[in-house]
Structures are given as structure tokens and as C-alpha cells.
Write a structure and sequence with these properties.
- This protein is mostly helical and 55 residues long.
- It has a domain of 37 residues.
- Helices cover 76% and strands 0% of the residues.
- Helix 2 crosses helix 3.
């Protein structure tokens, strides 16, 4: 049988999942912002990322 102290401890899998979601959330916000910027003005967004001018 399991010891009572082990069953009352923090679940490691749950902690890893929460940490992963917490780190993934800001990344998703940045990507959504960049995608919206690209859809609104694709030419300006592409010139900023490459640093080259078409003129």
C-alpha cells in the first residue's frame, strides 16, 4: 500500500502541465499578434523581417 505522505504530495505531472501551459500562453499571444500584423499589412511585415528594401 502507498504511504499517506506520498499521496498528499504535489502531483508532478500536473505541475509540469501547468508550467507548460503557462509558458505556452505568452508565445501564443506573440504569434497571434504577429499573424494579425501580417494579415493587416503583408508588405510592411515582410520588409521588416528581411530588412531589405524593394526600391
Amino acid at each position: 500500500m502507498e504511504e499517506p505522505s506520498l499521496s498528499s504530495s504535489v502531483d508532478v505531472d500536473k505541475g509540469v502541465t501547468i508550467a507548460f501551459v503557462a509558458l505556452l500562453f505568452p508565445l501564443r499571444m506573440v504569434m497571434i499578434f504577429r499573424c494579425v500584423k501580417l494579415v493587416k499589412n503583408p508588405y510592411a511585415a515582410s520588409s521588416e523581417s528581411t530588412g531589405l528594401s524593394l526600391n
